[in-house]
Amino acid sequence: MLAESREQLIAEIDRRLEDKLIEQKNADLLKRLIKNAETLSDAIDIAELGTTWKRTGFHFDKRLEGQKGNTIKYFKKNEDLSFSDGKGGVIHKLIIGDNYDALLNLLIEYRGRIDVIYIDPPYGKDSMGQFADTNYNNAITRDNLLSMLYPRLILAKQLLSVDGAIFVSIDDKNQAYVKCLMDEIFRENNFIACAPRKTGAGDAATRGDSELRKPYDYVLIYSNSRVEVSLNKKIVGEKQYPLSDKLGSYYLAQFQASGSDSTRKARPKLYYSIFLQEDGSLSLNRNLMTIKELLPSKVNGEDGRWMWSKEKFETSAKNELVYDGDKLKRKVYYDESKDQNKYQVEKAFFDDSSFRNAEGTNLLNSIIGKGLFKNPKPVGLIKHLINLISNEDSIILDFFAGSGTTGQAVLELNKEDDGKRQFILCTLNEITDINPNGVAYDVTSKRLKRVMAGICYDETSDFEWIKKNEPYGGTLDVYEIESVSNAENTKGKTAFDVIDETLYGKEKFKTLKDKIDWVCSNFDGTQRIIESDEDWVKRLGV
């Protein structure tokens, strides 16, 4: 895993050099340091030093998180919180612990396999871990926010599939700064949209005469590769073919081009005269039978153009073009081999009532009770975002999972279209006054258990949601982030003993040597103790 990640980080340094963001000598130094980094965390920290933000003038004081200690972080299954309906199918995952460690571990199995990432990072207030100093209104400082996001987004990009996309919810105070960070990591040419979302907040009177209502936040949308990504369109009906002739059923469509390149200037060869004849036929040549010359209409004061070349006109005009007394129209015939749905491109403005904050709050209250989690995102919003990019067997990741809205959104979509989407949620078990056991235990896991199984962990089902809904069913594996010292050599307690390879999509290794090779290849900070040849032979059992 470290070797692959090094290659990707070095490729990013080369890209910054190509874009003239850093100097050649600095790039060479950074690449040497990355090649010699002992851990992926070190390599990411080194790569971060190569960010200069020359194109945007953007700057933040980087706060490196530092070493995680001489420990190896790994997944351990929580059997008490995991559950299954026994019907097989998709295995969803909830990972409890630092999302940086979770992402490192997910790279082992899911590198390049995640189709959709959605995150709602803690940009407003409350704890954000080691660097949660505050400046205004108890809000997290931007340096802390951006420093926290940088290494996590680097890992997220490595998890994202080549045709995948990432969605980031952010408020208006931090949108510009986080967008610059996203431009750096995912590249500006992979930016798709900054879509306002109507939150519903701010509709009440503001607290001061100088204030404006702010009923919006934003969703930043980036693809991993703009060449590969294809956004889904909304189906708004079926094509109708009300007319017919000897060639079949058809409808009439415009013959003049529209869109960004619809002018004569853009495509000069597609601007030409067409001559209407007395018998209703069309020709490229004026003659004694000509009664009218037809030219493309103006487009914003410029000459327009036709959709066909002259060559296409010569071969197809007789059967496929008609003049309706005002405009030229082309016949579009029914073809059973083609998709007959009518589509509409989605707008980059999320104003549906199901996308508003109140919907998220009311839904969560009906599942786990009131007041246990503030400002959950609405399920409708996450469903909409997933549908923009995913198919029915996508893998969806949320590494700031909070109350688990993304998980429920995936479950609802699967129920609606019998899909096999998988969700992976990562959340820190933050302890608060209202969540004394931690958010992951008191909110996230309980929500998923209730909506999937119809009961809570204590076998009770006295919550409002279940009175009007059927549980979704399915399997949830819950993992905790555990650690083991890289100097541990007590039998049964080493990394090679405690790490369970089956939690990473592997079958049990047949030999200890295979297990050791796999652990050393995939985990940061593996054993540094040097064994004697005798101890090594004894450990391998040969």
Give an overview of the whole structure.
Residues 53-57 and 125-139 have low confidence and may be disordered. This protein has four domains: 1-52, Single alpha-helices involved in coiled-coils or other helix-helix interfaces, CATH 1.20.5; 57-72 and 111-224 and 350-478, Vaccinia Virus protein VP39 (Rossmann fold, 3-Layer(aba) Sandwich); 245-333, no CATH class; 486-540, no CATH class. It is 31% helix and 21% strand. The strands form five sheets. Strands 1, 2, 3, 4, 5, 6, 7, 19, 20 and 21 form a ten-stranded mixed β-sheet that branches. The radius of gyration is 29 Å and the shape is globular. It has 542 residues and is of the alpha+beta class.
Compose a concise summary of this entry:
The protein has 15 helices and 21 strands.
